[in-house]
Amino acid sequence: MTVSTREKSEIPEVGLKAAKQAARAKKISPSPVYNETTTEDKKMTSKANFEKLTNDAAASSKEHMDAFVKSGTLLSKGSEELVKTYIGLVQNSAEKSTEAVKSLMACKTLNELTETQNKLAQDSFETFMSGFTKLSELTVKLANTSLEPINAQFTKSMKKASEAAAA
């Protein structure tokens, strides 16, 4: 059987039309299996991201609470030391006051009373300043020591946040 020239030219046109129609059909309605797979993949990815996010948040919260507990423990121990120092200073002051009254009562002349009073005032001021300095140093040490765990956790969190923002 022979094919005429006219028939030869019609065959490619029909093939071209069919190919165009098939391409349009694929663009308009993709296969339902492809859609289900894509949706299922999105659900799995979303679920995995959510689980990772909640696990990270839980770990971060635990770290924050651990830092606060450690800070509170350090604060209570430091406060105990501060209170003991304060009580020691008060007891020392009471003893010196008792001694001062005795030495003032032992004075026989007005000049001796004035000299003793000046000496006691000077000693009292020096004792007050040394006690105040000691309490100030302990307070600063207590603040720095007790805030150290919170500061370290804050620094760690900020580093994580900046790394996440950069990614």
Short description:
The chain has 167 residues and is an all-alpha fold. 93% of the residues lie in helices and 0% in strands. The protein has one domain.
Strand runs, count: 0
Terminal-residue CA separation: 70 Å
Task: Tell me, briefly, the overall form.
Answer: rod-shaped
Number of domains: 1
State the order of secondary-structure elements, H for helix, E for strand: HHH
What proportion strand? under 5%
Oligomer: single chain
Q: What is the alpha-carbon Rg in Å?
A: 43 Å
General description of the model:
With 167 residues, the protein is mostly helical. The chain has one domain. Helix content is 93%, strand content 0%. It contains three helices and no strands. The chain has helices at 5-28, 32-105, 110-166. The longest helix has 74 residues, at 32-105. It is rod-shaped, with a radius of gyration of 43 Å. The relative contact order is 0.08. Residues 29-35 have low confidence and may be disordered.
Question: How do the strands and helices of this protein lay out in sequence?
Answer:
Blueprint: H1 5-28, H2 32-105, H3 110-166
Helix pairs in contact: 2-3
Notable traits:
mainly alpha; 3 helices; 167 residues
